[in-house]
Amino acid sequence: MLNTTCIANLSKFVVSHLKNPFSTSGRMADSVDLNTYDTSQVKLMKEECIEVDSDDNVIGPRSKLDCHLLSNGPPLHRAFSLFLFNSKNELLMQKRANAKITFPGYYTNTCCSHPLHNATELEEKESYGVRHAAQRRLKDELGVPINQLPICDISFITRIHYKASCSDKWGEHEIDHVLFARKDVDLNVNPNEVSEVRYVSKDGMKDFTKKCENAGVPLTPWFKLILHSHLFKWWDNI
């Protein structure tokens, strides 16, 4: 697993205002017509995310819908980004399904989502809550059996704080917990969540992202931030 002694301690979150930054206005969410979106994805908008302050202290529950509407700020909330490598040290990448409400059709790292406001996923000791959320969502999105990636095999690396929009309605404002794991797993992809997967080597990542760019396939802003800051250094120490 990653040798964290070889990595600089990121005592402060990396804050990035990527393309199309937006201000947090504090306004209540404007009404939005969800009838044009995928029904399964709309149901997920009722989930309760974890609103946090700038130091990642829990404020309380906030619906996924509230957390992603630009007209609502959106409020800062907790998230995770899992980077899963196989025994060849290749990174599993996914292309988000076009049915997704936020960042549809974007390529990103293995699994990216939110811990929920419940007793299990609020647990902060040894980052248990976000690691449990990663295990849950990896099964939901990519069909990885829970017993193939035990929580003890998921390592917390650091946190990043970023904002980014994906349209004139939707965006993210997150403290994102970065998680690493190295395991060979079986995949049973959920097409409502993921349209494509592939393993990418460290040496092949720059070529892969260039091909995405040339084909007009965007990368998610949180993945781009990690890619251009620390990913290759961490990759060297797996």
UniProtKB/TrEMBL annotation:
Question: Which Enzyme Commission numbers does its entry carry?
Answer: 5.3.3.2
Q: Which keywords does the record carry?
A: Isomerase, Isoprene biosynthesis
What positions does the domain Nudix hydrolase occupy? 75-225
What metabolic or biological pathway is this protein involved in? Isoprenoid biosynthesis; dimethylallyl diphosphate biosynthesis; dimethylallyl diphosphate from isopentenyl diphosphate: step 1/1
Annotated InterPro entries: IsopentenylPP_isomerase_typ1, NUDIX_hydrolase-like_dom_sf, NUDIX_hydrolase_dom
Q: Name one GO cellular component term.
A: cytoplasm
Q: Which GO terms describe its biological process?
A: dimethylallyl diphosphate biosynthetic process; isopentenyl diphosphate biosynthetic process
GO molecular function terms attached to this record: isopentenyl-diphosphate delta-isomerase activity
Q: What is this enzyme's catalytic activity, as reactions? A: isopentenyl diphosphate = dimethylallyl diphosphate
Q: Which SUPFAM superfamilies did the record assign?
A: Nudix
**What function does the entry list?**
Catalyzes the 1,3-allylic rearrangement of the homoallylic substrate isopentenyl (IPP) to its highly electrophilic allylic isomer, dimethylallyl diphosphate (DMAPP).
NCBIfam families to which the protein is assigned, alphabetical: IPP_isom_1
Q: Which family does it belong to?
A: Belongs to the IPP isomerase type 1 family.
* Protein name in UniProt: isopentenyl-diphosphate Delta-isomerase
- The species this protein belongs to is Ciona intestinalis
